[in-house]
Amino acid sequence: MSIEFIGMIQTRKVSETHAPQGPAVDVGYVAQFARAHEAAGFDRILVPHHSTSPDALLTVAHAASVTSRVHFMLAHRPGFVAPTLAARQLATLDQYSGGRLAVHIISGGDDAEQRRDGDFLSHDERYARTDEYLNIVRRIWTDAKPFDHHGQYYRFEQGFSEVKPVQQPHIPVYFGGASAPALEIAGRHADVYALWGESKAQVREQVTRVRAEAAKHGRTVRFSVSFRPILAATEAAAWERADHILAETRRLRAAQGLGVGGPAQSEGARRLLAASGDSDRADERLWTGIAKEIGGRSNSTALVGTPQQVADTLAEYYALGVSTFLVRGFDPLEDAIDYGRELIPATRERIARLRSAEGAQRRDDRDLGRMTGVAMTDLSHARPAAERSAFDGESSTFRRHAPLRKFWFDDVPPREGVAEERRYRQERLAVAFRLFARYGFDQGLAGHITARDPEWPDHFWVNPFGKHFGRIRVSDLLLVNSQGEIVVGEGPVNQAAFAIHAAIHEARPEVVAAAHTHSLYGKAWSALGRKLDPLTQDSCAFYQDHALFDDFRGVVLDTEEGARIAAALGGNKAVILKNHGILTAGPSVEAAAWWYIALDNACHAQLLAEAAGAPQAIPHEMAALTHEQVGRANGALFAFQSLFEGLVEAEPDVLT
Length: 656
Hints:
The chain has 656 residues and is α/β, with parallel strands linked by helices. Strands 1-2-3-4-7-8-9-14 form an eight-stranded parallel β-barrel, surrounded by seven helices. It has an eight-stranded mixed beta sheet with strand order 18-17-16-15-19-22-21-20, sandwiched between helices. The longest helix has 41 residues, at 332-372.
């Protein structure tokens, strides 16, 4: 069961701790917010719906236009648009977004909210309408011929859509609602059933109920849970942050003349408030302080702790059957970026271990059954004796110890303090230059790698212009500010390095490092003016994760052209600069440097394959899966680390 991380964007900065400011639609903020989610490793982004908010469908359309990989989940309320029209709108948006749309059906649990848009049906009537609505929408998406419909809530003749979704047989349907009528409809229609952040006991109960409803229709359903992770370097600091969030929420509500919110009308809100009883904590990490303050509205419960502790808790929910986690913060943009640094990778690693251990256990059971003649169904009570007879007898030629599993991508211990983090980045940056020299990425004066400073995020470290990559040491690096001025170090700055990298670091706040040189195979491939195909396992690291900049105008000397390159890069890890070369960007120096090495290698491989004949690309679904397996930043970090250790051992002066 694969996992999915969903974030959430809004059209301006607002949360329980941030009063809304500025226009209701901040176009630049939406683009930055969406790209930050894509770069942080989210699989999908929710765009919510409210009766007074900007239109969610148009917001998805804009966010999809400025991203290339991340998928979207459109919150959609039945009843305000005819289902025939809604089906065509959603199918059209799925086409324009390249098959990146899902729809989250919300029937509405609050009468006052519904009535703002003229809906006066009762709670149960709304769910009955949703049932009919979704039946129609699915038929419009899938039927090859027009059809008539005469139902309780809708009537039309010859309904049909010329446009069908990219995703077949239909766009994924997420579904919310905790009442008995909601569960019944979920069993019939939901691909993914969405819960708010409830306790593990509550989730176990609800998963069981929804599965039973789905089984009545011969269906299976996936499950999603929503949380507001509150993270810090230590558990104590995380709880202090939670206390501050609650205090700030109360301050803002008091300034608006609001006290403690009365319980919201929906069944989901009631369950949310019941999660921790009279306390504000449940299951060690689940915190309901904000939920109780605002009456259980929206996904307002939090998981509090270090990234590793919260990742462990999410893995426990996975063991209950949850495969989708909707996570958003109280500092919306900043938290989304932060989740991508540790929480999302750590959770994926823990769940990968869990899945691998489960697979190993099944294999062990099968092997043990074959060797002992004991059926798998009998092993639960016979395993200890079976193991003794199989491996400890006199005739055995080997003896097993308890199985051990060591994964390549264990978490890297965090650095303590700014100074230690700065030194860490500087060392890897200097080593990256030496490695690039070994790979032949050092032609003439061209080429630069930058690393964002951890204390001054609008400053970056870069190589001095004219110094050979193979001679660079940590002490040679220059610190440059956002105006291109040298703050630390001596020697000239490559003007192209500043023009390109300053724009990337400004546009992508989650990017720590970026790399660009005029490597041979990267240059050769760039002259073809097209993106790479997924020809090999290694090249799949860049599948749907690299862009093409096809507007070559000579040497990049001004920040305006750098900004155009940054825009072309978008949320991807790499961009091919037509007639120029290649560029990579990542959340660590290691990732940016390794991805550059890997991208040049992928260019080389495709050039050879096309010279030899007609290469066969890996099919989309398998290429996308392989990208998930080999394209993550943590894997790149460890791939680089082995090169780092070898170079430092051979050339220790690099760290001076």
